[in-house]
Amino acid sequence: CMAMIAGRLVYAGSKLSLSNRWKDTALWELCGVEGEVDVEEHCYKAMDRLLERQSSIQKILVEKHLRNGSLVLYDITSSYCEGKYQDSEIVTYGYNRDGKRGHEQVVIGLLCSSEGCPVAVEVFAGNTQDAKTLQEKIAEVQKRYGIEEVIFVGNRGMITRANYQKIKDKRGLMMISALTHRQIRELSKRGVLQQELFDEKEIIEVLDPENPGQRYCLCRNPLGAERESKTRKELLEVTRKELDRIAQSRRTTTSQKIAARVGKALGKTRMGKQEIVASYKKLTFVEQAFRNLKTVQLEIRPLYHKTDDRIRCHVFVCMLAYYIQWHMKQRLKPLFASDGKNKYRQWTFESVIERLKSIRLQTLSVAGVECKIVSDPEEDQQKILNYLAIRL
């Protein structure tokens, strides 16, 4: 299992390709596997045993990184699958958050500390909506992991009004989310919010007299305003062109049919209700975690495993690999901070891994006697090892 976890950081590819690298890398040997690696025995069966321990491992991680009253970040994403999964209970079609259409998928929920350190992951059916996982995840944090007082942070697609009503009186729970446009308009109509309160430099705190348990922290994001203004103009232009096309049509028709075509055009761009659905501002650290999990470095997608448990364990292995990557990045901050700029920039996490790959474990034979030696690290390699607190 350690070889598979470390292997996701060092090598891209499948479990089979990793097992076939046993002649080219000391990874398997350092993790206790001597000689030829069998993918079934050393990967798949090991994954089955690891999955049995997922709950207890995650409990240890939660105890290490979360405390009573701590901030908990939570978000979900999707990952598509290749092939057919007729007997799967979790692989199905659903809303793909990466725009990858035509593929079945699973949904992944990731729990992180306030610093973005991953502590728990769960795989849901591919058609699971964001909001449906919230109550279960809060109960897991409070009951299974014993964090009775928690500040739960989720985006507005997750902490919906319906969800809020179900959990608002839950003991020990506080929540942070963002308001939807509709909620802002409703609060404005009641006089709780005024446009002049939104400031670019200061965060203004407002209390709702009808809901004293809620606080609203107001600020104006000029970049967000510019983005939404651009989107609004684009939608207005699309709407104008469509209405012009209808107006210039020469075919004979009735007023009812024209009205229906106009209504359809307005419905496509949502300008009929003057509502522009903006992209939700994601939780930065969890979004960064998902980017790392999905990119070439950890390659959580696409999924090729054919059983639900193997899919769950593959995702868990990727999370554990990201856990190691996260800690490595914390220790390497001085290296990155002292790096040059522009063309003089040298270090990224990927270049660190590549630089360390040239340190070799070799078998030396002298007068019929064999021994294993590790090549001496060069100056920059030793500097990296010192930051990581690794002794060869």
Q: Hey, roughly how much beta strand do the residues contain?
A: 15-25%
Radius of gyration: 26 Å
Helix content: 40-55%
Count of helical segments? 15
Order of strands side by side in the largest beta sheet?
Answer: 3-2-1-4-5
From the spread of the alpha carbons, the general shape counts as globular
The helix/strand series, from N terminus to C terminus, equals HHHHHEEEHEHEHEEHHHHHHEEH
Instruction: Point out poorly predicted stretches.
Output: 275-283
Give the termini distance in whole angstroms. Answer: 21 Å
Number of strands: 9
Helix/strand/pairing category: alpha/beta
The mean pLDDT is 80
Largest sheet descriptor? 5 strands, mixed
Q: Which keywords apply here?
A:
5-stranded mixed beta sheet; globular; two-stranded antiparallel ribbon; 392 residues; alpha/beta
Describe what is shown at a glance.
This protein has 392 residues and is α/β, with parallel strands linked by helices. It is 43% helix and 16% strand. It has helices at 2-10, 15-19, 27-30, 39-52, 54-65, 134-144, 161-167, 181-189, 222-247, 255-269, 284-294, 308-331, 333-337, 349-357, 379-387; strands at 70-80, 105-113, 118-125, 150-153, 173-176, 204-208, 211-218, 361-366, 369-374.
Describe this structure in words.
The protein is of the alpha/beta class and 392 residues long. The protein contains 15 helices and 9 strands. Helix content is 43%, strand content 16%. The strands form 3 sheets. The protein has a 5-stranded mixed beta sheet with strand order 3-2-1-4-5, sandwiched between helices. The protein has a two-stranded antiparallel sheet with strand order 6-7.
